[in-house]
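Design job #97: recover the sequence.
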C-alpha cells in the first residue's frame, strides 16, 4: 500500500515560516543591481542575523569590521536600527559609530516573515570624515593606515542621501513581496497536492484507526502542527480523545472536552472550525500544561458532528484552515463508508442469527426454553450483561417476567407490571423503544437504581403487526458504554423476528415468514431485489444530501431465453450463477450486487461518478464476454454476452424510482442498439 507520509517527508519544503520559501539567488541578484545605484546593501532578519551580505563594502567598514571593537559596535548599531525600522514600519536613518550615515528599510511580508535592508554607509560632510579620523585610533589602526583610506572617501550631500531610503523601499518592497507570494504559492500547491495524496489513501482498505493516525501525521508534517488529537463523542455532552500526535500526545488521551463550553457549542452547532487563545477557555478545556492556543475542526456524518479534530499551539492562516477542513471532510466520508460497511455487516449478522435461531426455535417444544433463547440471543447481539424478557398476559393485561439473566428469577417470578405502569408497562403501551443514556435523569425509582452497574439501559417492545406481545429489557453493556441508536435498531430487527417465534398462533408460520424476508437469492447467492430496493432508497437520499454521485447498473443477459430453449433450464441456471460471480469479481466491497429478477441483475455503486462507472461497466461486459461457458449439454466455445444500462443520482434522477427507470431505459437502448454493449442515460 502506498505510504504518502514517506513521500511527504522526503519532498517537503522547510516548515519554518521564513525565507526558505523565497528565491534567494534571485534576490541576491536584485540587490547587486541596486548596489550599483545606492551603495552597499545587506539583508537581515528581525533577529539581526544577516541573510545576504553586501557585495560592495567601503574601506571604512572593512577596516572597522576587521577589529574586535569595531565589529561589536557595528552589530549593536545594526540591531538597534532593525528594531527601530520594524517598530516604525518605515525607513530609519541613523549615524553609526564610524560617523557614517546609513538607513534601515523594513520589508514586512507577514507577521512571521520580516526583513530589514540596511545600506548607505556614507559621509555627509568632511567634518564627519574628520571626526572618524580623530577617533580611528581606537580601532587599533596606525596613522598611516587611517590616512591611506580616509583620503579617498567621497562625501554625499544630505539632500541626496535623504532620497535614497524611500527610493530603495519603493523598488525593494514590491520585489520581495512578489517572490514571497511565489514561494507561498508553491508551498500551498505542495500542501494541496499532499493533502490530495493523503485523502486518496482513505479509499484504500485501511482501518478507521489507521486513517486517523495518517491524518494526524499529515497535519504534523504539512502544517508544522505541534500536537493534535481526534476526540469522539463520549455520550451526548462531551468528547474523549482516541487518537493523538505530537508533543504531550500521551497526556491528550486523558483529555475530555465538555460540550457545554461556548467554543465547542458553536463548532457543533455551526459545523465550522474555530480557534481560541483565551486563557479562560483553555482553562475550562483542562488542556495540558504549556498549551496556549487551540483549533477545533468538526467531523460530520449525515449532518451530525461525531468527532472533533483538535490542533494545539499552531498558528494557522485562512488557507491552512481551508485545507485542513477539506482533509476533515474527506476523513468524514471515509468514516461514513466504514459505518456503511459495519451496518451491512450488522444486518448480515442479524440475518445469520435469525436463521440460526429459526432452526433452533423449530426444535423447541417448551415455552420456557424458547424464552431463554430469545433473551440470550438479544444479549449476545449487543453485548449486555443482564436483562429480562416479559410476556403480556392478555387476560389481565399485565407483563410477567418469563426469562432473566443476571437477575435472580425466583425474586421476580410473581412480579407483574400492568400496561401503562412503570418503564416496561409504558413501553408496552406506546409500542415504541426506550433508550436511557443516564439513569440519574430517568424515571426509574431511586430504590431500583442500585441494581444497574452502568447508567444506560434499553427496553424494546415485542410486536406482531400493531399488537404488543411483550417487552425485552437489557442493561449493563460489557464495555461500560451506553446503548446506542445502532443497538436499538439492531434489537428492533431481532425483536420483529423473535415476536413471530414467541407468538403461539404464528409459530408454525415462522419458517415461511423468515424465508420471505430473506435478503439473498437462493440460486446465485446474490442479494435479492427486496434488499436492493431498501438499500437503494437509503443511498439515493444520502447522495442527494451529500451531493455525492450514486450510480446504478441494470444488466440483462443477451438472448437468455434462446439459450434456455437450446440447452435447458439447468444450463441456464449455471449461466446465471457464472454471470453473478463474474460481476462480483469486478466491483468493490461497498458496492451492492443483486439479482433483480429472471436474467436481470443490478449493481449499485456509492460515491462513483458516471465516468468512473463506465470503465467498471465495460470491464464487466468484456469479462463476461471472454468467460468460457461449458456443461454436459453446452456446445464448446459457447459465448454469453450482456447489455448494461447506467444512470447516476442526482445527475439523472432525484429518487430511487426514477433512477431505476432511467437505468432501465438505458438498458433498453443497449438491447435495441445491438446488445453486448454499455449505454449510459443521457
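Job complete. Output follows.
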Amino acid at each position: 500500500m502506498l505510504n504518502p507520509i514517506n513521500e511527504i517527508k522526503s519532498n517537503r519544503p522547510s516548515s519554518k515560516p521564513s525565507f526558505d520559501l523565497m528565491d534567494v539567488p534571485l534576490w541576491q541578484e536584485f540587490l547587486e543591481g541596486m548596489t550599483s545605484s545606492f551603495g552597499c546593501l545587506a539583508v537581515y532578519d528581525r533577529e539581526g542575523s544577516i541573510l545576504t551580505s553586501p557585495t560592495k563594502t567601503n574601506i571604512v567598514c572593512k577596516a572597522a569590521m576587521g577589529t574586535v571593537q569595531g565589529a561589536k559596535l557595528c552589530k549593536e548599531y545594526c540591531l538597534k536600527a532593525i528594531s527601530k525600522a520594524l517598530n516604525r514600519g518605515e525607513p530609519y536613518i541613523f549615524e553609526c559609530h564610524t560617523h557614517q550615515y546609513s538607513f534601515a528599510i523594513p520589508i514586512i511580508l507577514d507577521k512571521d516573515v520580516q526583513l530589514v535592508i540596511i545600506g548607505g554607509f556614507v559621509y555627509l560632510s568632511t567634518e564627519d570624515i574628520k571626526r572618524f579620523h580623530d577617533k580611528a585610533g581606537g580601532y587599533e589602526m596606525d596613522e598611516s593606515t587611517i590616512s591611506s583610506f580616509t583620503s579617498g572617501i567621497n562625501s554625499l550631500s544630505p539632500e541626496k542621501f535623504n532620497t535614497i531610503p524611500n527610493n530603495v523601499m519603493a523598488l525593494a518592497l514590491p520585489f520581495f513581496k512578489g517572490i514571497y507570494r511565489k514561494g507561498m504559492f508553491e508551498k500551498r500547491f505542495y500542501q494541496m497536492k499532499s493533502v490530495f495524496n493523503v485523502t486518496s489513501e482513505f479509499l484504500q482498505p485501511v482501518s478507521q484507526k489507521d486513517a486517523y493516525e495518517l491524518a494526524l501525521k499529515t497535519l504534523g508534517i504539512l502544517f508544522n502542527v505541534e500536537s493534535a488529537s481526534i476526540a469522539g463523542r463520549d455520550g451526548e455532552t462531551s468528547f474523549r480523545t482516541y487518537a493523538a500526535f505530537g508533543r504531550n500526545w500521551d497526556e491528550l488521551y486523558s483529555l475530555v472536552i465538555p460540550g457545554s463550553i461556548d467554543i465547542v457549542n458553536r463548532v457543533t452547532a455551526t459545523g465550522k472550525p474555530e480557534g481560541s487563545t483565551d486563557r479562560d477557555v483553555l482553562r475550562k478545556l483542562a488542556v495540558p500544561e504549556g498549551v496556549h492556543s487551540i483549533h477545533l475542526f468538526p467531523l460530520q456524518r449525515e449532518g451530525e458532528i461525531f468527532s472533533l479534530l483538535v490542533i494545539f499551539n499552531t498558528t494557522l492562516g485562512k488557507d491552512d484552515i481551508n485545507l485542513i477542513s477539506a482533509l476533515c471532510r474527506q476523513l468524514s466520508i471515509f468514516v461514513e463508508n466504514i459505518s456503511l460497511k459495519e451496518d451491512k455487516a450488522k444486518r448480515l449478522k442479524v440475518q445469520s442469527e435469525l436463521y440460526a435461531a429459526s432452526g433452533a426455535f423449530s426444535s423447541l417444544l417448551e415455552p420456557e426454553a424458547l424464552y431463554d433463547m430469545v433473551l440470550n440471543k438479544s444479549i449476545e447481539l449487543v453485548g449486555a450483561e443482564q436483562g429480562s424478557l416479559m410476556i403480556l398476559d392478555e387476560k389481565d393485561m399485565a407483563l410477567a417476567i418469563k426469562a432473566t439473566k443476571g437477575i435472580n428469577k425466583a425474586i421476580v417470578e410473581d412480579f407483574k407490571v400492568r400496561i401503562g405502569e412503570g418503564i416496561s408497562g409504558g413501553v408496552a403501551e406506546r409500542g415504541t423503544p426506550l433508550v436511557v443514556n443516564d439513569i440519574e435523569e430517568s424515571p426509574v425509582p431511586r430504590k431500583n437504581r442500585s441494581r444497574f452497574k452502568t447508567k444506560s439501559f434499553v427496553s424494546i417492545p415485542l410486536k406482531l403487526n400493531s399488537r404488543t406481545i411483550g417487552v425485552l429489557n437489557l442493561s449493563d453493556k460489557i464495555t461500560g458504554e451506553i446503548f446506542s441508536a445502532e443497538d436499538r435498531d439492531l434489537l428492533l430487527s431481532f425483536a420483529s423476528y423473535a415476536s413471530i417465534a414467541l407468538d403461539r398462533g404464528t409459530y408454525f408460520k415462522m419458517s415461511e415468514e423468515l424465508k420471505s424476508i430473506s435478503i439473498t437469492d437462493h440460486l446465485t447467492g446474490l442479494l435479492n431485489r427486496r434488499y436492493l430496493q431498501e438499500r437503494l432508497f437509503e443511498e439515493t437520499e444520502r447522495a442527494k444530501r451529500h451531493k455525492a454521485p450514486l450510480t446504478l447498473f441494470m444488466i440483462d443477459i443477451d438472448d437468455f431465453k434462446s439459450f434456455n430453449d437450446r440447452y435447458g433450464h439447468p444450463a441456464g441456471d449455471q449461466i446465471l450463477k457464472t454471470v453473478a460471480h463474474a460481476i462480483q469479481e469486478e466491483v468493490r466491497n461497498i458496492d451492492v450486487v443483486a439479482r433483480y429478477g429472471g436474467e436481470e441483475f443490478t449493481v449499485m455503486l456509492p460515491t462513483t461518478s458516471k465516468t468512473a462507472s463506465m470503465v467498471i461497466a465495460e470491464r464487466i461486459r468484456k469479462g463476461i464476454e471472454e468467460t468460457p461457458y461449458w456443461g454436459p449439454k453446452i456446445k464448446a466455445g459457447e459465448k454469453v454476452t450482456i447489455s448494461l444500462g447506467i444512470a447516476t443520482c442526482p445527475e439523472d434522477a432525484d429518487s430511487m424510482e426514477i433512477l431505476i427507470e432511467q437505468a432501465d431505459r438505458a438498458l433498453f437502448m443497449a438491447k435495441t442498439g445491438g446488445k453486448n454493449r454499455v449505454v449510459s442515460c443521457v
